[in-house]
Amino acid sequence: MLGLKEELLKSIWHAFTALDLDRSGKVLSHNLCTVLNVPHDPVALEEHFRDDDEGPVSNQGYMPYLNKFILEKVQGNFDKVEFNRMCWTLCAKKNLSKSPLLISDEDAFKVWVIFNFLSEDKYPLIIVPEEIEYLLKKITEAMGAGWQQEQFDHYKIALNTSREGLSAWELIDLIGSGQFSKGMDRQTVSMAINEVFNELILDVLKQGYMLKKGHKRKNWMERWFVLKPNIISYYVSEDLKDKKGDIILDGNCCVEALPDKDGKKCLFLIKCLDKTFEISASDKKKKQEWIQAIQSTVNLLRAGSPPPHKEARQKRKELRQKLLAEQEELERQMKELQAANENKQKELETVRKQLEAAAARAAEEEKKRLQTQVELQDRFSLELEREKMVRQKMEEQVAQKSSELEQYLQRVRELEEMYKQLQEALEDEKQARQDEETVRKLQARLLEEETAKRAELEKWHLQQQQTIQMTEAEKQELENQRMMKEQALQVAMQQLKQLELERKEALEQYEEVKKKLETAANNTKSWKDKVAHHEGLIRLIEPGSKNPHLITNWGPAAFTEAELEERQRSWKGKKSTSE
């Protein structure tokens, strides 16, 4: 009840601070009793708001009445959304920005409720940068966009330099400005805010369409299921207007997958103490998501843990409180160190003053010592001055003698130097003459060699010219011979082609003549057989001539050699005519 009272106080605080308590405190109290389902107490209400000097018209005076007559009687059987909407109606008109926003009034109301959920438990209410980042991340994820961490870090730095956090109306302006939702339309932003509102405020852990098997008719109907920390409600559609029933969850419930049957797929079963529910998801992924979500909810009920988002909010608050305590402890330690440092500074100042006094005494003694030393130095200076004058006279005499000796030695050194230079000049002249003679001889020899080489080069040049001329002539002759050989080769190739053609024609004529001769031989043989058969002629074998035997298709010695030569000449003549 303490957590519920804190949540209610935040919304009431907004409405209370926006009203003139003298005129509207009764209206606020009456409306609170109505939406929270608390019995009205007109006597206490009139007594509290009586018009006298003792009437509680301040924040401190209204809180005792609010706690005693309203909040302590709240049982939790009220509509949270309706309660928040009543408080929003009383405070929005006065505080909501007049500049146009990218979100609707309904979305602004949901952001205001989320602010009350995430804000710190101190007044005036603010939301710290860590919770702002958490909310903006949730909205960005719901929109399906990427989170701009660098952009928020710049915004966070600018925010931390001026204040600790934002008020509800500044948060609405931030989200409504579109600074962290660039590129998204109003509908996408609205759907994202609604999704975050359902999760954080309405405790909706999961929702979606699935098929449910009836208990009486055993038929399958599509329903819109809404999973909350201790209940699953199902409706005709997602507008939540026509509720068809609830599945009460507790630590004894369990959920398990079922095999496909009766033409239905992706089935799972929710077992409760009194009833069992068969449900069919749209696909395997949704089936697994629903099973995990329901099982996680049952596990939280068994462990007595709050919903994940409330537990996460509590952990974030505890972490901030821990960091704040550590920071306070660090500040306390810093103050102790600073106090110790100041004490040390005081001690050091005392020591410094003591040292300054000792230094003053030492300076006085040093002054006396220096004065005595100056007197002694003056006395010694007079004696030293007299000795210095005597020494100076002696040094002047020694210097004069030394100067004369130095001049004499200088003249001797100059004469010796001149003698050495003269000897070196003579040696240089002698060497120069020898070098000149050597160079002259070398030049003459080089000139002779150059003349001989020039003559030899001219001879080689002439020989090269002659060789080049001969080579050019030979090259020209070889080129002519090559051209003639190529021409002869072309002529020979043409003749070879011509002979090849003639050979082919001769073979064709030979084949043709051969066929004719075979035909004629067959005819002759047939004719001779007929004659021999009918007439009975017998050819007598006679001795042949002594010449070499000539055999033709008509038999031995059918033609003489002269006749054959005549026939061969006739054949060649016909062949040349046909060509």
From TrEMBL:
**Mind listing the UniProt keywords for this protein, alphabetically?**
Cell membrane, Cell projection, Coiled coil, Cytoplasm, DNA-binding, Membrane, Nucleus, Phosphoprotein
Q: Name one GO molecular function term.
A: DNA binding
Fetch the Pfam families from UniProt.
EF-hand_SWAP70_N, PH
Annotated compartments: Cell membrane; Cell projection, Lamellipodium; Cytoplasm; Nucleus
* InterPro entries xref list: EF-hand_SWAP70_N, PH-like_dom_sf, PH_domain, PH_SWAP70
**Range of residues in the leader sequence:** none
Main location per UniProt? membrane
Domain PH span(s) in chain numbering: 203-299
User: Nucleus among the record's keywords?
Assistant: yes
GO cellular component annotations of the record: cytoplasm; lamellipodium; nucleus; plasma membrane
Q: Does the keyword Repressor apply?
A: no
Outline the subunit composition: The SWAP complex consists of NPM1, NCL, PARP1 and SWAP70.
Q: What does this protein do?
A: Phosphatidylinositol 3,4,5-trisphosphate-dependent guanine nucleotide exchange factor (GEF) which, independently of RAS, transduces signals from tyrosine kinase receptors to RAC. It also mediates signaling of membrane ruffling. Regulates the actin cytoskeleton as an effector or adapter protein in response to agonist stimulated phosphatidylinositol (3,4)-bisphosphate production and cell protrusion.
Q: What is this protein called?
A: Switch-associated protein 70
